[in-house]
Each structure stands twice: as C-alpha cells, then as structure tokens.
Design goal:
This protein is of the alpha/beta class. It contains 16 helices and 13 strands. The strands form 2 sheets. It has a 9-stranded mixed β-sheet with strand order 5-13-12-6-11-7-10-9-8, sandwiched between helices. A 4-stranded antiparallel β-sheet has the order 2-3-1-4, with helices on one face. The protein is rod-shaped.
Length: 519
C-alpha cells in the first residue's frame, strides 16, 4: 500500500518566499514597532518594590527552645500564595497601607486596582515569588507595583506584614484552642470541688485542679512565644527606576514577533498555494521546458535597448530556448507565427520575446516581432531609440510597420486600444512571407481572453512563467488552451536562479585563454 512520505523542508523555496515578501514584512514590522513605541511611551510610569520573607525550619538543636517555643508546620508555596490572596491578608494589607500613606490620587488609583485584583486574582500588582527547597525552607519575595515609588514601598511592606501576621495567627490557633480547653476543664473542676461529698474527693479534685492550673499557666506562657514559619528578612526600599513602560523593549519584542509570525504565516500560505520550484513542476503539466533564464535586474526596464540580451549568462540560456523552440517546430519552422504569453503580469514575456528574436536573427533567420500587447507596447520601447528614430510605414487600420529595427528583425505595432484576433491574424500573414518566423507579444492569457483566440489562429503558443509563480494559474491556462485547441509549444522558465552557469564554455566571454592542461 502506498504511504505518505514525509516532506523535507525546502529551504530554497522558503528563502525565495521571504525574499519576495521581505520589504512588506519589514515595513509591517517597523510600523507596528513604531506604534508600540509611541503607545508604550504614553502610558504612566509604574514602580515595583520587593519585600523579602524567610521560611525557616521548625526544628532547633536546643531542647529548651524546643520546649518553650511553639511553631506551626511549614507550608508549600501554593498554600502561601493562596494565603496571600485570602480576604483576611488582603484586607489587613489594605488597612495598613491606608495608615502608612497620605491620601492622594495615586493612592486611590492603586486601591482601585488592588480591589479589582482581589476579585479576579490576576496577579498584576501583587506577585509572590517563592525560592524554597523541598523542605519548604528558603525565601519568599513579595513584589508590589504602584504609580509612585513611595506607594510601591509601602504596599510591599504592608503585604509582607499582613502575611507574617497571618502566619503567626495560624501558629497561635492551636495554642488558643488548648488554653480554652484548659480553662473549661479548670472551671469544671472548681464547680465539682464545691460539691465534694467527702474529704477524699475534695483532696483528689484539688490535685487535679492544681495540675490543670499549672498546665494553663504553661500554655499562657507559650501563647506569648508562639511564632510561624515565616519571618521578616528585608523590608522594601523605594525603587529608583520604573519597571514599566519600556517603549524600546516593547517595540523590539513587537518587531521580532512580527518577523517571526510573519515568516511562519508566509511559509504556511506558500505551502497552501503551490508555486513553481523548477522545470520538474512545469514538466508535470505535460509540456516540455524550452529553456530556463536567469534573473537579470537590468532587463526589467522599459528602455535602454537590448544590450542586456547580448551578454552574460542570459545570452547563453536564451540560446537553449532558441534550440528548444526550433527543435519543437521541426520542419514547420518556416513562416510560423508564434504567440508568446504568460498566465499573469510581470512574468517577463516581453523580454523573452525580444531576446529570442535577437537570438534567432543572429543565427540567420528573419524575424517579425509583433507588439500585440495593446496595453503596454513594450516592444516599441525595446527596439525603437529616441536618439535615432526610425520612420514607420503606416498600414491599413491602426498598424505601423518598421521593416528593420535591427539586422534581420522587423517590428509590427498597433495603436488600437483592443486586441482584435482576426485583424491581427490578417496583418501578420500579409507580412509573414517576407520573414522566416513571427513572434507575437500578447497580453497575459488569463487576463485577456483574446490572447488565446489569437493563439488559436496562429501556429503555436510559448508560455513564459516566473520561477516563483503559482502553479494553479498555469494549470488553468494549460487546460483552457487544450480545450480551445491551441497548440502549446512549451514553457520558458524565467528568473530561475539555478540557470546561472558560470562555465568557461560560453559565447558571452570570447577570447578567454584555454585552461592549462596538466599531465
């Protein structure tokens, strides 16, 4: 049974996606970071003070101390946290804080925030940090945030004192209950002593009462020496610098988070929308790949001639496109009219048309370049120079014809605002007998329906696609062309980085000295 194989992470494809979206992603991250910086800087200052409590062991090496000191058992940090947020501790802390600080707007704001926190238990203004071992011995830090340093200091000390008082009351509870039991027992013996029936009973009750009174005196002494497991370690000091807001830190965090989540989102969207990775993806559509062309930033311009097509790796790779095209046409290459188009905008169909025409002309073929892209007319900007203008032949309708814009190359253009397939077909076939081949630069096939209508009338369609183009539009274009009976000659993969060769065997660098042969 076939099983799904895990897919490796394609770092090259991921880097291509990030490179394509780098500027929008950086702009978004900078914008959000700037807004965060401004919003964070406009918030009021918040100060934090910390008071420390020590959690000590209950045992002692001195037997006298053990016998005369009552301590409560240690508590886990979770219990101490719950105790800190109990109504008794919280109320005592607020009462102490009210007594220690003068009335002010900042104090009223702090009290309102503390009451809200007592109801929700969020822990935004009062925080307990335990640093204890497995025996619950260590340090507890109580941090309180407030609008002013003085309020933060007073608040930390108030909550630490309230927690200490709660711990002492916890240890005192068992002693108080023991004293109450002894008092009840003493009163009962006193009442029975007054009703003794004999001298023996009276002496027995007196001895019992004396023993109870002695134990009661001991408990009353222990009540004065009782202590909890917590003790004050360090009082809070007024903080010098606010802990919030921190505009720079917040802005950096937002900037980094935007970049990270943006990259994850881009990667997810890219995986949900498959793109062309290389020639293999195009061959999977059932068409040959005529050639691959490297990225070349200079050829994106609309003017400046065709110097970029005569040098470098681009010239070498356009030769492969020429050979692949002529091989596909076979014996029917003479007087063929071929449409060059793409699925979307900015895939490079116009530059491929011009460069392919130049390559064919350099190998002895006469090529007619037809600028049928009535929306942009890019071919005119490639072949016609403003410094040395060529006279155009005005033909029927809105057509203009330049018999030779370059050696072996003619140019046909139209001033019409719409693409009329039948009209273009007639004009192309009127001029085609004077040329070996016609290359027709058209609007994108999925943007203008007349492109496929024109390709159906002519001899074939060459599809140009960018190396990072989505696959879905290409699949749709191949399906539509097949349904209409358009002969598809193959793909030209444009801006494919792996197409850069850099070999010593290249027409682009003639006259290079041969490599030294070693024996």
């Amino acid at each position: 049974m076939p099983t799904d194989q895990p897919k490796d992470l394609d770092l090259t494809a991921l880097l291509r996606v990030l490179r394509r979206a780098a500027l929008p992603l950086l702009a978004t991250a900078l914008l959000l970071a700037g807004l965060t910086y401004l919003l964070s800087g406009s918030r009021p200052a918040v100060y934090e003070a910390t008071a420390s409590l020590a959690a000590l062991p209950t045992g002692s090496g001195n037997s006298v101390i053990v016998q005369t000191l009552v301590t409560a058992p240690p508590l886990p940090p979770a219990v101490v946290e719950r105790a800190l947020r109990s109504p008794a501790v919280w109320g005592q802390a607020l009462r102490d804080l009210r007594e220690r600080t003068p009335p002010s707007a900042a104090r009223s704001e702090l009290f309102a925030a503390l009451r809200a926190e007592a109801a929700t238990g969020e822990g935004r203004y009062v925080r307990l940090t335990p640093e204890v071992n497995q025996e619950f011995v260590g340090v507890y830090e109580i941090a309180v945030r407030a609008p002013t340093p003085a309020l933060a200091q007073a608040g930390a000390n108030a909550f630490a004192g309230a927690l200490l008082e709660w711990d002492r009351e916890r240890a005192l509870g068992s002693v108080v209950r023991a004293r109450q039991n002894l008092v009840t027992e003493r009163d009962d013996l006193t009442a029975r002593l007054s009703q003794a029936a004999s001298a023996l009973d009276e002496r027995t009750l007196e001895r019992l009462r004396a023993d109870v009174v002695q134990r009661l005196q001991q408990v009353e002494v222990l009540e004065q020496t009782v202590s909890g497991t917590l003790s004050a370690l360090a009082e809070a000091v007024p903080p010098q610098n606010p802990v919030a807001p921190r505009p720079l830190r917040d802005a950096l965090l937002v900037f980094g988070a935007t970049l990270v989540f943006g990259m994850l989102l881009l990667s997810l969207l890219d995986s949900l929308r498959p793109r062309v990775r290389g020639p293999e993806d195009l061959r999977a559509l059932g068409l040959p790949v005529l050639g691959t062309l490297p990225p070349f930033a200079a050829r994106r311009g609309r003017s400046g001639g065709l110097g970029w097509a005569r040098q470098g790796a681009f010239r070498e790779q356009i030769e492969f496109v020429r050979v692949g095209l002529l091989s596909g046409l076979g014996a029917g290459a003479q007087e063929s009219a071929l449409v060059v188009s793409s699925a979307g905008v900015a895939d490079g169909k116009s530059t491929v048309t011009a460069a392919l025409a130049l390559s064919l002309a350099e190998h002895g073929l006469r090529v007619l370049v037809v600028d049928a892209d009535v929306f942009r007319r890019t071919q005119e900007s490639y072949w016609l120079s403003a410094e040395a203008p060529l006279a155009a032949q005005e033909r029927s309708g809105s057509y203009r014809f330049w018999p030779e814009v370059a050696p072996g190359i003619g140019l046909l253009s139209s001033r019409a605002s719409t693409l009329d397939p039948a009209d273009f077909d007639r004009e192309i076939h009127r001029l085609l007998p004077g040329y070996d081949l016609a290359l027709v630069d058209t609007p994108p096939a999925l943007k203008i329906a007349d492109t496929l209508a024109l390709a159906r009338r002519l001899d074939g369609l060459i599809l140009v696609t960018d190396a990072a183009a989505p696959r879905a539009p290409l699949e749709r274009l191949v399906e539509d062309a097949g349904r209409l009976g358009v002969p598809l000659l193959g793909f030209v993969l444009n801006r494919f980085r792996d197409a850069v060769t850099g070999s010593d065997y290249a027409y682009a660098a003639p006259g290079r000295a041969p490599a030294e042969v070693t024996r």
